[in-house]
Structure formats: C-alpha cells, structure tokens
Design goal:
It contains three helices and ten strands.
Length: about 170
Amino acid sequence: MTHTIETFSRQVREALLTDPGPTGREKVRTLLETVVKDAAFAEQHLGDGQPQRRVLYQDPDLGFAILGHVFHEARRTQPHDHGHSWAIYGQVAGETTMDGWEIVEQATADAPGKVRLRDSSTLTPGIARVYNEGEIHSPRREGAAKLIRIEGQPDQTGPRLVWEPI
C-alpha cells in the first residue's frame, strides 16, 4: 500500500486527538512502522537529493511535526531530550543506534547535567521507537541513513538543557 503524507498526517492527528499521552504515541509508532516500510513514500520524501532535515508536515492545531532526515555520512548526536515534548524515530534505510541515558546529576540552565549510558538499541529499516518527555537519548549512525521523526512540539521555546556523558 502506498501512503501519502496527507493520509499519514491525518492518522497521526486522529491518534493524538484520541489520546495525546504515551498510549496515543504508541499507536503513532505503529503507524510510523508501516510508513517507513513503504518504498514509494520513502522515494518521494527521502530521495538522495533531499536536505538532511525537512519538515514534511506540521499540524496547525496540535503542533506535532513529521520530519524527513537524509544523512549521507556517519553522525553522532550528544545526549538530549526534547524538553517538554516527545519524539518518535522511524528507520527507513541504514541503521541508527539509539543510546539511552540515565541522569546522574541534574542539568540546570547554567550547568550541564551528567548522564550514564543505560542501554543501546539499533533501529533497522521498518522499526520505530518512542521517546517520551524527559527521556534522554542520543542517536548515532556509522554511515548513510534515512529516517522519519515525529516531534510533539518542535518549535517550543525556552532553554534546552545540556547533558554530558560520564
């Protein structure tokens, strides 16, 4: 089945209107796993000529955004959360290792916090994972990769806390 961004965004919207919490996000994760397996959808929105990060859809009422990412080389991201929001990562091509971190020392606006590696899991094509509010994680890729990420409130204001691994 070929998905469209219009149909997919409508399904995400309906799931989040029904339940904006973790249960609704889990439904969105399941929906995303079907979309990231759709080769036609991937070719349309994540072709090799696409920028590294592109907003595919942003909901005017609920605020969530569906983003397409095309990484051409290895990349490692520092530990982070999404502030007062959440994110769902869905792997289309390549692999992404998602490191999960536990807080050892709380960050403040003035000083970075300290985190310790808790676990690692690998996202392969067709797999999606939810990170709820406050869950510190860091994606890393050893080579080219494509993914779709859904963020609850990508344009939130306010300072983001900084985390350093120990």
